[in-house]
Amino acid sequence: MASFAQSAIFPVPVAELAAWHFRPGALERLVPPWSGVRVAETVHEMRDGATASLRVPIGPFGLVRVRWDAVHEDVRAGAQFVDRMTRGPFHSWRHLHRFTSADDRPQPASRLEDALTYELPFPPVGRLGNGLVASMLHQTFDWRHRRTGNDLRRHYELAGLPLTIAVTGASGLVGSALCAFLSTGGHCVRRIVRGAASADRGDIRWDPSAGTIDAAALEGVDAVVHLAGESIAARWNPERKERIRASRVRGTHLLATAMARCARKPNVFVSASAVGFYGDRKTEKLVESSARGSGFLADVCEAWESAAQPARDAGIRTVHPRIGMVLAGNGGALRALVTPFSFGLGGPVGSGRQGMPWIAIDDLIASVLFTLRTPTIEGPYNAVAPGLCDNRTFSRALGRALRRPAIVPLPAFAVRAALGEMGQELLLGGAMVTPRVLSDHGFRFDFPDLDGAFRFELGRLQG
To answer: What's the predicted TM-score (pTM) here?
Structure first.
């Protein structure tokens, strides 16, 4: 039987630390993004006998996934709980989470203790098996404790009455992270869904293509966050371009109109947009007041933002995060880039001089809550990291994070041949976008530089 223990201190009262772990969304927030682990079933009420399930990749390249089921035991509200594996890749696994006050600190503080005991499924060769597991656990818990601390600080800084927030695109990369982040902060999240709506979870049914929504369910909601839209990451043809545009414009107009008709209207509508609004602007430094650019994405973004006009006309504060490339180790562009860069096949695209505005996913979701809590933010804000970055700089930073050279270029002609107009606008075009609105309102980025963002998302905190 092997054991592992690690603790961390957080500058919040023990009740806040424990509450974060006991709320829905905590498991999702604690799964390392680089691990490939997926939450299959989560816990909505922390109690003895409640179960959670994960899908865990094993073997070369993680091609095989096994189910990991855990039951919660010895649950003591505000003090501790235990996860015991009932099915999974280990012979046995027991994880105690304990929350205590850190009385030796001058300010209110709390201590999280993670204590594990486990047995491997087969006798390890010498100490190799336990050594590999111990290394993995150190990497995992260094990351978990940092994210926990970041989230606790964010919620402490943005404290106030808990909000009821309706979210579209809740199953997507950003939406799922946002829902978990808001839930662990004590907010009530109601997902706006196309499929079967769960009454127990408070889901709201809609069908943007049919122009229908359960408008009555929006009555009394404090805020609506709209993230849904057709993916743009595929070769464009006229039909796909129309789906991209229609999915954004129709859905936004449907939501804005439904909110405007509510007797008890939401206070704020956060409707996503993108830095594609600025078009291909080379090295020009752009802020929120800069003119729109040209091209398909600029046209879509303008129509997307304009579709929210019924909400603005009804007096609902309307905010448009113009989102850059989202850095997340568990999906999106970064996950697609890791494989070629890991084999030393990464490098600049085209000239490499095109602007490449980006934002770490944790800063993006924090910026959404920041705008909900900041009534002076209205209209567009650039959801991008503060430092200017071009494609060559981005490629070199990712190579450093993976300890690989990033010198294999992707010629512009190859991008155009393979991806057409989409490749021209998304990969060969770019803009130098800065977050003036967030900076002027005092938003603090946890990941203002690429090196730090890559290390966090890829689990290289000690690198």
So the answer is: 0.95
